[in-house]
Amino acid sequence: MQSLIDNIETLLYSHNFIVIPGFGGFVAEISGAFESDGTFYPPHKSIGFNPSLTYNDGLLAQQYAESENVGFNEANGLIQSDVQELTNALNIWKHVRFGALGMLHKTENGIIFEPSNQNTFLQSSYGLVPVFFPKIEAKEEVSENTNVAHFTQNNERSGSNLFYKTVAAVAVILLLIMFPIRLIDSKSSVNNTLNEASFVPVADTIIPQIESMVESGYTYNVIIGSFMTKEKALQFIDELPPTYKDECRVIDVEQRYRVSFKSFDSESECQTFLEYFKKDNRRFADAWILKN
């Protein structure tokens, strides 16, 4: 079962949709930085679990094949074995910690997932840790002669210096949160040594960069199939009804051939289409969104 946890954690660094065949699927989305009880947390991935997502798209099996150095069919066998071990543990103990993702609970209504508030699956936040800022309280000193409470000059200076140091520290943290160090890897692993860091020194350079990011954007694709070879993907398209066939195309991403039915420039438009598409087409109830 530990191998199942390790492989899913590895995939979460570069994927937001991971299905455990016959068990359920984990869905992740990026959440911004937040503050709680004086502690500032960096951006992270919020992870949810959907037990109805059981279709084997081959992504987890491919990861098993690479990490365990086995063939694709043997990888699927290892997944089935680990899923059975996980199911048995839930039946016996009712509660199982699933690595850094959170806790799985077996209830009368099925499996409930309790996500962890802290994880490192967002590459742009790798290396950032929660930071606690205590409240600054002024210290009073009572004069022996006048019995009047007053602040000493030294305390005033000390409090002032502490205030400015705290403001400077907060500014640095906010800068790191808004413009985090980005790690770039070639194999979805945080152990690679290739990385780059950049700082934006002045405000007038920030706006053009943001505008450039908005203009370039991403392409959001509705994926209805995922295959190990391009030939299998084309065969899948060829067997579809003509109304679907004309809209499909093959996307080669990370040694997987995904069949895209529709593409959108807006994530919200793609999500809206996907919801109606799955309702009207039960055959593609496991369709999902791939962001390029």
Note the run of SSEs as H and E: HEEEEEHHEEEEEEHEEHEHHEEHE
Task: Give unreliable regions as ranges.
Answer: 146-158, 183-216
Number-wise, the strands total 17
- What is the C-alpha radius of gyration, as a whole number of Å? 25 Å
Shape: globular
The amount of beta strand, in percent, is 25-35%
Percentage of residues assigned to helices: 25-40%
Straight-line distance between termini: 31 Å
Q: What is the strand arrangement across the widest sheet?
A: 15-16-14-17
Tell me about the largest β-sheet.
4 strands, antiparallel
Q: Taking all residues together, what is the mean pLDDT?
A: 77
Layout: helices, strands, pairs:
Elements: H1 2-12, E1 17-20, E2 24-31, E3 34-36, E4 39-41, E5 44-50, H2 59-68, H3 72-93, E6 95-98, E7 102-107, E8 110-115, E9 131-132, E10 141-142, E11 149-150, H4 153-178, E12 182-183, E13 195-196, H5 203-216, E14 220-227, H6 230-238, H7 242-245, E15 249-253, E16 256-264, H8 267-280, E17 288-291
Antiparallel strand pairs: 1-2, 2-5, 3-4, 4-9, 6-7, 7-8, 10-11, 12-13, 14-16, 14-17, 15-16
